[in-house]
Amino acid sequence: MDRVVIVSGGGTGIGRAAARRFAEDGDRVLLVGRREAVLRQTAEELTAEGAVRGGIGTLAADLTGPEGAQRVRDEAGARYGRVDVLVGSAGGNVKYASGGKEPPGGLAGVAWQWRSDFESNVLTAVLLAEALTDLLQAPGRRVVLLSSIAAYRGSGTGSYAASKAALHPYVYELAGRLGPHGATVNAVAPGFVEATGFFGGRMPQERREALAAQTVTGRTGTPEDVAETVFWLASPGAAQVTGQIVQINGGARYGN
């Protein structure tokens, strides 16, 4: 295809895998994230792999604030003149993304964790989608946001799970707004996915095996598993699929 695809959080993990999948199909992909060096490295690596047919661009922007989201809107309009697909993959669990930095103690720490997870997982998705809404109001446009199995089962901290669950009603509402224009809005909710850096390299082997045992497929997920589902949801074949949360967890939804 020859679509313009924006992937937030596109420098690593699931976002990177999704970007690769679209680029392989000939789409023009814009990687968006906070770390410019990571985005450029990913673009260079994918190009070197021969995974790029449509071209990969990069844009560093902090999507937790309106200025960053507006910057993406302005740049996308100037560079491409349109946006066909938005993949909202930016986010993470502040518990694992703090780089070992100790959070504040007491209630200040609770407020910091909840606010940080909300900004990282909700604002990054909502602000970017809202900034691009005018470009997404057309037949064939697609929005796919990244939720998590934690939205159904909890995450041990509450704040991460709650922030991912907050995306679900937003998906329903945005699907209702964009549907009359011929666009679709969905989310995917992966279970445990390896090779993403989500746990900051602190996943004990025993815990990994326990998570794999919760599935009925007998294995943990991969970024490519999620990327393929995201790609399908953005395809013409999924034109009648909207307002849905698609779980990708090997049957672990009701695991322990």
TrEMBL record:
Pfam families named among the record's database cross-references: adh_short_C2 (PF13561)
SMART domains per UniProt: PKS_KR
GO MF terms held by the record: oxidoreductase activity
InterPro entries linked to this entry: KR_dom, NAD(P)-bd_dom_sf, Sc_DH/Rdtase_CS, SDR_fam, Sec_Metab_Biosynth_SDR
Superkingdom to which the source organism belongs: Bacteria
Domain Ketoreductase: 3-191
Record keywords, A-Z: NADP, Oxidoreductase
Assigned protein family: Belongs to the short-chain dehydrogenases/reductases (SDR) family.
Annotated protein name in UniProt: Oxidoreductase
Organism from which the protein derives: Streptomyces abyssalis
